[in-house]
Amino acid sequence: MTLLTDILLGGAAAFIVISLSVLYRVVRGPTMQDRVIAVNAIGTNIVVIIALVAAATGNPSALDIAIVYALLNFLMSIAISKFTVERGGVL
After folding, report:
1. For every residue of the chain, which 3-state class applies, written as one string?
2. CA distances (Å), 58 to each of 14, 44, 61, 71, in order?
3. Which of 2, 13, 28, 43 has the maximum number of C-beta atoms within 10 A of its C-beta?
4. Is the pTM higher than 0.90?
């Protein structure tokens, strides 16, 4: 392993720790909006983790997976927001 690979994998590990800390807000969030934002933040962190691991391993096809996951994360956020507004919640 080279120094750059170690740095990229260390960054991915840091994003995993951040995602685990945000998971607390998903479970204990007082409002639905807090939970939606936390899930969106975790999804964004996962996209970054996939990109860092792809760069560390030299596997550019994993970037396609990251792009698809980012699009699904965005659509999930929009769908939950629409569902919340239809139920009478205010975003």
Report:
1. CCHHHHHHHHHHHHHHHHHHHHHHHHHHCCCHHHHHHHHHHHHHHHHHHHHHHHHHHCCCCHHHHHHHHHHHHHHHHHHHHHHHHHCCCCC
2. 20, 21, 9, 23
3. 43
4. no
Q: Report CA-CA distances (Å) from 65 to 6, 35, 49, 51.
A: 22, 24, 11, 9
Please name which of 59, 47, 55 lies closest in space to residue 18, comparing C-alpha atoms. Answer: 47
The single-letter code of the amino acid at 2 is T
CA-atom Rg of the chain in angstroms: 16
- 11 with 5: CB under 8 angstroms? no
